[in-house]
């Protein structure tokens, strides 16, 4: 495993991290989830990402149980706040001071830790003044409940405004967590240049496009049994927009490229996002330990300019590049 600095800080994280979105507490039972976490640890992964909304807080509980007994100082634990949790009442969502201060306490209890290394705004909250949100984050840092603050799926303008307030309030905004893969590159035009200017890193999710870039989904064929595309507890909804024959056909054409590099398809996808020097870590998941091990092996792999060009030629106009997609990630109202 190799490690990269997160933003303009002295904080290092594993360049392949482990996340439990749409797996722990939903697609994967607790015993299997613990095996996946152990596989991540065995592979040298030290960075673990979750959120209170995943499986309505169950994912945090499962991750906390799985990491119990590990040396806390050797781990980097990330979680997020914004989306509705618990009974989903009128204050059980958003980035108000009330919700942030209550949410961090719940997350720490479920994760069985006194602090998280990175606390992230899961989306932008249009209903709460940004000043209120950033002041609450400043207080969370001063209370020692989070060491650093990040955001997720914020636009370049939102990141810039948040960074200025964080600087004024005396704490560091060091990361953004966007979706990013060789087929979804919407952050490249605006978010990445702004982040580079401000000293903010990307911690990217879905680098394998939720499994599509493994090549296991064949055009014109039903998805394999047990795959995310068949998961009725939520996974199938997230992956549906990627299940297009044109895209799936192009992905099949990536197989000889991966073979030439001596990589699995998943490793090729993870190595691709890590070629962007603004990416500090690629969040990978897995419903089986061997998937976790395979993903982690992408750490340190370097892709040549020729290989990157071949990938671009294969994927062509199937790649999503519209920067406006980032703004669409945050609902204009909290319960939308």
From TrEMBL:
Q: Does this entry carry the keyword ATP-binding?
A: no
Signal peptide per UniProt: none
Respond yes or no to whether keyword NADP is given for this record.
Answer: yes
Q: Which InterPro entries match?
A: AKR (IPR020471), K_chnl_volt-dep_bsu_KCNAB-rel (IPR005399), NAD(P)_OxRdtase_dom_sf (IPR036812), NADP_OxRdtase_dom (IPR023210)
Q: What are the recorded GO MF terms, alphabetically?
A: oxidoreductase activity
Here the segments flagged for biased composition (Polar residues) are 326-336
Q: Which residues form the NADP-dependent oxidoreductase domain?
A: 17-314
Name the CDD domains for this protein: Aldo_ket_red_shaker-like
Give the keywords, sorted.
Answer: NADP, Oxidoreductase
Q: Name one GO cellular component term.
A: cytosol
**SUPFAM superfamilies listed in its UniProt record:** NAD(P)-linked oxidoreductase (SSF51430)
User: What protein family is recorded?
Assistant: Belongs to the shaker potassium channel beta subunit family.
Protein name per the record: Aldo/keto reductase
């Amino acid at each position: 495993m190799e490690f990269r600095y997160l933003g303009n800080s002295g904080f290092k994280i594993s360049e392949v991290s482990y996340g439990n979105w749409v797996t722990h507490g939903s697609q994967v039972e607790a015993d299997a989830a613990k095996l996946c976490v152990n596989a991540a640890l065995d592979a040298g992964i030290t960075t673990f990402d979750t959120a209170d909304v995943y499986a309505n807080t169950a994912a945090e509980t499962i991750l906390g149980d799985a990491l119990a007994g590990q040396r806390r100082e050797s781990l980097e634990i990330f979680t997020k706040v914004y989306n509705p949790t618990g009974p989903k009442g009128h204050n059980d969502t958003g980035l108000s001071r009330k919700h942030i201060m209550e949410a961090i306490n719940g997350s720490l209890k479920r994760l069985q830790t006194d602090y998280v290394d990175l606390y992230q705004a899961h989306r932008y909250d249009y209903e709460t003044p940004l000043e209120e949100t950033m002041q609450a984050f400043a207080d969370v840092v001063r209370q020692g409940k989070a060491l650093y603050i990040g955001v997720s799926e914020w636009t370049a303008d939102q990141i810039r405004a948040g960074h200025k307030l964080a600087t004024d309030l005396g704490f560091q905004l060091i990361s953004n967590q966007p979706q990013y893969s060789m087929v979804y590159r919407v952050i490249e035009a605006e978010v990445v240049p702004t982040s580079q200017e401000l000293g903010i890193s990307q911690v990217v999710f879905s680098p394998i496009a939720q499994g599509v870039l493994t090549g296991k989904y064949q055009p014109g064929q039903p998805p394999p049994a047990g795959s995310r595309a068949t998961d009725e507890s939520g996974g199938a909804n997230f992956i549906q927009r990627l299940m297009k024959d044109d895209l799936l056909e192009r992905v099949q054409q990536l197989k000889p490229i991966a073979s030439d590099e001596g990589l699995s398809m998943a490793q090729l996808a993870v190595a691709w996002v890590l070629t962007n020097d603004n990416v500090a870590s690629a969040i990978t998941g897995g419903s089986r330990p061997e998937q976790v091990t395979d993903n982690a092996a992408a750490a340190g792999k370097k892709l040549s300019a020729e290989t990157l060009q071949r990938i671009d030629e294969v994927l062509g106009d199937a790649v999503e590049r519209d920067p406006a997609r980032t703004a669409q990630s945050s609902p204009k109202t909290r319960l939308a």
